[in-house]
Amino acid sequence: QVQLLESGGGSVQAGGSLRISCEASGRTFSSYAMGWFRQAPGKEREFVGAFAIVWSGGNRTYTADFAKGRFTVSGDNVKTQAYLQMNSLKPEDSAIYYCAAALGPLTVRNLPQTPDDFQYWGQGTQVTVSS
User: CA-CA to 75 of 20 to 30 Å: which in 30, 91, 118, 121?
Assistant: First the structure.
């Protein structure tokens, strides 16, 4: 089993920044991804970005198109932590942000991006952006 614990989030005015973190514990694994999703009321869960350790040992970060330029995903393989830095926030970014983990082996050709690709989920943290 893998446990995911998120921290950070909160409320900010439009144009502000927030950073949320996720720490994984439990099983150890050599190839995995830690991803971020968000879900606003009445909307489907949406992929934001992920940090992955691929089978060859390298790491990858990738983000959804809407997040490029404003959101940055990063990770620390030693600490098994992932981070989501969000800048220039907009009211439409308000949502519950979830951390998720996908176990490998992963390659650059099968990086997980959909909710079904991830086996473990955090409890979510609320991000509210006011105008």
Answer: 91
Q: Rounded to an integer, what is the distance from CA 79 to the centroid of its chain? A: 15
Decide if 129 contacts 91 (C-beta within 8 A).
yes
Using alpha carbons, select from 124, 121, 125, 112 the residue that is nearest to residue 33: 112
CA-based torsion, 26, 27, 33, 38: positive or negative = negative
The CA distance from 14 to 1, in Å, is: 38
Count of alpha carbons within 13 angstroms of residue 113, beta-carbon side: 11
Contact 90, 18 (CB under 8 A): no
DSSP category for residue 50: E
Segment 6-42, tens digit of pLDDT: 999 999 999 999 999 999 998 778 899 999 999 999 9
End-to-end, the C-alpha distance of the chain in Å comes to 40
